[in-house]
């Protein structure tokens, strides 16, 4: 089974590592790779205190690199105006408790993701039968319990706005997790895609080493509703983004990105969905509570 859509090399645009430890995507958007996962910084360089936004919070051990990049990019002691979580998987919330406390900032997320972020629920068990390469590599970093940022947690507004990111809106892209969101800026068609699709094969050590540009569905091990995941890719493909930053892998841009995204949406069941596995026949859903388990 093909598990990726090949992408024309012209789509790959990884900027060099800047002096602040991030890689630029646009003038006011940059990302930093922590082992296998990306965190994104939004706000112009030298924005100053409470004038920028952190999107996602890396893995355990990411704190000092995030703090260093924030200081270098936005100014000494510059705290963000908010943290936006695309979803609550452990590789996206690694140091969110620490950062929320230290910076005393609101943490914005989709209400369906709230149980995983206030300590009240764990994700459904992952499915190791669909490919565990990423998970095997990350296993020393697994947290033991769901995070609890309830003191700082806020629901993203129903009107689709992103409070600390004017010009952006959030888009519900469930499937990989029930409350996953992508972030979209229409003005320059920039997409922060979370794990709705990714640009590296998390299940394959070979692909990670070779780093050919390619498009994949969401990391399989954690995806609990494949029909929803397909609709989410269709939604994002219809946006026809100019550039996309994903939770894992390098950003892609231009017509080659759009073409690959359309192909992924079209061939999603063949390319992205595992041939078998715990959630292929019976998805975990928010509606019947099966997406939530006791921690
Ligand atoms: Zn995830
Ligand atoms: Zn992820």
Give an overview in words:
This protein has 295 residues and is an alpha/beta fold. It contains 9 helices and 14 strands. The chain has helices at 63-74, 96-103, 114-117, 133-138, 205-210, 226-238, 254-266, 268-271, 278-281, and strands at 5-6, 23-26, 29-34, 37-42, 53-55, 82-84, 107-109, 153-155, 168-172, 181-185, 190-192, 214-215, 243-245, 252-253. The chain has a 7-stranded mixed beta sheet with strand order 2-3-4-5-6-7-8, with helices on one face. The longest helix has 13 residues, at 226-238. The protein is globular and about 50 Å long. It starts with a strand and ends in a 14-residue tail after the last helix. The mean pLDDT is 90. It binds zinc ion (2 copies). The site of one zinc ion has 6 residues, from loops. One zinc ion binds next to loops.
**Rounded to an integer, what's the Rg over CA atoms?**
17 Å
Q: Summarize the amount of helix as a percent range.
A: 10-25%
Number of strands: 14
Strand arrangement within the widest β-sheet reads: 2-3-4-5-6-7-8
Overall mean pLDDT: 90
**Helix count, per DSSP?**
9
User: What share of residues are in beta strands?
Assistant: 15-25%
Overall spatial form: globular
> What is the terminal separation in angstroms?
35 Å
The biggest beta sheet is recorded as: 7 strands, mixed
Low-pLDDT runs: none
Bound molecules: zinc ion
Assembly level = single chain
Structural class estimated from helices and strands: alpha/beta
SSE string, helix = H, strand = E?
Answer: EEEEEHEHEHHEEEEHEHEEHHH
């Amino acid at each position: 089974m093909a598990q990726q859509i090949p992408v024309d090399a012209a789509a790959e645009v990884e900027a060099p590592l800047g002096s602040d430890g991030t890689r630029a995507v646009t003038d006011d958007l940059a990302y930093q790779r922590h082992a296998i996962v990306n965190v994104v910084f939004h706000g112009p360089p030298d924005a100053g205190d409470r004038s920028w936004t952190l999107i996602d919070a890396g893995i355990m051990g990411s704190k000092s690199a995030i703090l260093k990049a924030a200081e270098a990019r936005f100014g000494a002691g510059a705290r963000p105006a908010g943290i936006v979580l695309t979803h609550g998987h452990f590789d996206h919330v690694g140091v969110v408790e620490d950062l929320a406390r230290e910076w005393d900032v609101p943490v914005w997320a989709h209400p369906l993701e709230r149980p995983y972020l206030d300590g009240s629920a764990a994700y459904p068990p992952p499915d190791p039968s669909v490919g565990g390469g990423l998970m095997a590599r990350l296993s020393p970093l697994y947290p033991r319990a769901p995070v609890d940022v309830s003191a700082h947690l806020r629901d993203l507004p129903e009107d689709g706005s992103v409070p600390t990111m004017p010009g952006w809106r959030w888009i519900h892209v469930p499937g990989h997790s029930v409350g996953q969101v992508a972030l979209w800026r229409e003005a320059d068609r920039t997409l922060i895609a979370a794990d709705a699709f990714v640009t590296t094969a998390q299940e394959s050590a070979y692909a990670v080493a070779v780093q050919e540009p390619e498009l994949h569905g969401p990391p399989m091990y954690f995806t609990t509703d494949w029909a929803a995941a397909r609709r989410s890719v269709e939604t994002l493909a219809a946006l026809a983004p100019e550039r996309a930053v994903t939770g894992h892998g390098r950003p892609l841009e231009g017509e080659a990105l759009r073409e690959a995204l359309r192909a992924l949406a079209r061939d999603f069941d063949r390319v992205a969905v595992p041939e078998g596995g715990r959630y292929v026949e019976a998805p975990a859903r928010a509606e019947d509570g099966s997406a939530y388990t006791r921690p």
